[in-house]
Amino acid sequence: MKRDLLLDAAEQLLAEQGTTALTLAAVATRAGVSKGGLLYHFPTKDALVKALVQRLIDEFDAAVDERADGSPGGYTRAYVDATFDIVTDRDPHRARRRWAVVAAAATASALADPLREATRRWHRRDDDTDVVTARIVRLAVDGLWEATDYAPLLFDAEECEQLRRRLVRLLEDPGDTSEVAGTAAT
């Protein structure tokens, strides 16, 4: 599909040359289409960046949905597994492209709105488990994603697997939640 070809070209430009290199003319050239062909799908640079962000969100949603099993804590386990699949993807080109899309969205507040809304949805999702533990686990994997965007080889495969297992275990045994429930003695 030509639309995906254009989005791929835009991601590549962002990853290789940064946000200042992302122009409609450069994307058209990279994709091997006319500027008019690009404008048919994306009339503005903002429309292109919004589409890049939406594709990133849709891909993550699909990865989580594919793994979710409907059990208590199942959504958060799927969130952990999907994130670890991304974090442990050793293809540096894909990792840079994901980060580049987020960086491009950060250039204007309105461009990041879909990502902010998705983040709210991901972190407010009811999971039929201890709410605070689920949030801690999701925030931890988000932090891991952020850290590995800056340092992709921060943890080797074994370390990543240890982290993943520990986070999943937290969901299975959240420990003493009395403080969270407001029943702790003061």
> Which regions are unreliable across 5 or more consecutive residues at pLDDT < 50?
181-186
Per DSSP, the total helix count is 10
Class of the domain at 46-174, according to the CATH hierarchy? Mainly Alpha
CATH superfamily of the domain at 46-174, please? Tetracycline Repressor, domain 2
Order of helices and strands: HHHHHHHHHH
Distance between the ends: 61 Å
As a percent range, the share of strand residues is under 5%
CATH fold name of the domain at 46-174, please?
A: Tetracycline Repressor, domain 2
Structural class, judged by helices and strands?
mainly alpha
What is the CA-atom radius of gyration, in angstroms? Answer: 19 Å
Report mean pLDDT, rounded to a whole number. Answer: 88
Q: Please bin the fraction of helical residues.
A: over 70%
Keywords: DNA-binding, Transcription, Transcription regulation
Protein name: TetR/AcrR family transcriptional regulator
Organism: Streptodolium elevatio
DNA-binding region: 23-42
Provide structural commentary.
The chain has 186 residues and is mostly helical. 72% of the residues lie in helices and 0% in strands. The chain has a domain at 46-174: Orthogonal Bundle (Tetracycline Repressor, domain 2). The radius of gyration is 19 Å and the shape is elongated. 26% of the residues are buried. Keywords: DNA-binding, Transcription, Transcription regulation.
